[in-house]
Amino acid sequence: MKYNQLTTCIYPALVWKVKWIKTHVLKLKSCHCWDLQMHCILHTGRFLLRNTYQRTWPKCCSSFSKMMRAVCVDKPGGPENLLLRNIPRPQPKDGEVLVKVHAAALNRADLLQRRGLYPPPDGESDIIGLEVAGTVDSLGPGVKEGWKPDDRVMALLCGGGYAEYVAVPEELLMPVPHNLTFCQAAAIPEAWLTAFQLLVFIAQVKEGEVVLAHAGASGIGTAAVQLVRLFGAVPIVTAGSLEKLKMAEELGAAAGFNYKEGNFAQGVLDFTRGKGANVILDCIGGSSWEKNVNCLAMDGRWVLYGTLGGRAVEGDLLGKLLSKRGHLLASLLRSRSLQYKADLVKAFSHRVLPYFSDQAASLRPVIDSTFNLEEIAEAHKRMEANKNMGKIIVNVVSQNQEISN
Fold first, then answer.
1. How would DSSP label each residue in 341-367?
2. CATH code, residues 68-188+368-404
C-alpha cells in the first residue's frame, strides 16, 4: 500500500475530527480549568482517532482491491501518449450495469479523442473506447432488464471502453449471440449501430436503392455493405486498394471503386446507368464533396457522419445540391441522448441481431487484427496508417483468464 494512497483515504477524516475537537472541546476554556481541558482533549482525541482508524481503514483497504487497469491520456498527442494505469473501478449508478470487459474495439473517434479533437460528452468518462464485450459483474440499483452476473453482453458506450471494467446504462446492453466470441462481439456495437442508424433512422433506405458507402473496408463500411444487402438494397463502395475492394465485394458489394486511381463518381454513374446513388454514406467530407454531389441521384440522400478528408468546402455545393433536390443529412451517434440510443439498440436488437446467430449466420463482424491492452499504442498506429480491413480488437482479458473464469 502506498503512503499517498493511505493518506488520501484517512487524512480527510482526521482533519474533520480535529476540527470537531477544536469546536466542541475547547469551549471548556471558559471553565478556567486547564487540567480539565487537557484531560478532555486527550481522551476525546484518542477516542476519535481510534474510531476514525477503525471506520476508515477497512474502507480504504477494500477500495484498493477494487482497482482496474485502464488506458489513460494525460496529454493529447500521438499513440505514445496512451498510458496503462491502475485506477479505481467505476461503481454502477442507478440503472447501470458494471461490465467486466473482455474485449474492446477501436474506432476513428478514438484517434481523434487521443489527439484532443473529439472530447467526450459532458459527464461521460474521459477514458477512450466506444464499444466492448464482456460479462455482467454487478448491477446498480434500479436495473429492470433482468441482467444477472456472468451474462455475456456487448455495449454501446460514450467512453470508458479501454479498461477492465465499465459502467453502462442497462438500455445500451445487448446479449452476445451464442456463436460469437467476445472479440467478434466487441466489433458490433459502435460500428454496426452507426451503420444501422445511418441507413434506417437517417437515410430510410428502401429496397432496390443503390447505396454508396465510402471506406467500404472499414468497420462501419463492412457493416454497411452487409446491412444494405439485408434490407434488399444494392451496396457499392469506395476504398484505397484493390485488396480492400475485393474484401468488400466478398461481403456483398455489387461494385467497388479505388478512389486513389480514378474518378469514383464516374464509376457510380456508369454502374447506375447515369442515375446516380440514392444514398451516400460519407465519412470523408470536404475533399470529396464535388464527386459526391455529382454522383448523387435525383432526390438522393447524402449522409455525412465524418470529415476525415477535411471540413472546408469551396465551390458551388449548394447550387448543385439544389439542382438535384438532394438531401444533405449529418449525424453523430456519440452525442445523442440516452433515449435515442436506447431506441436504436432496441430496433437493432429486433431487426438485425438475430441474423448473427441464425443457422445461415448471414451477418458477420469482420476482424482485422487483435492486440493486447498493453499493445494499445500499436493498435492505434495500425489504424492511423489505414492498414486495417475491418475492426481492430483489443483483448482486455487474456484467453487464459477467460478459461480460468
1. HHHHHHHHHHHTTHHHHSSS----PPE
2. 3.90.180.10
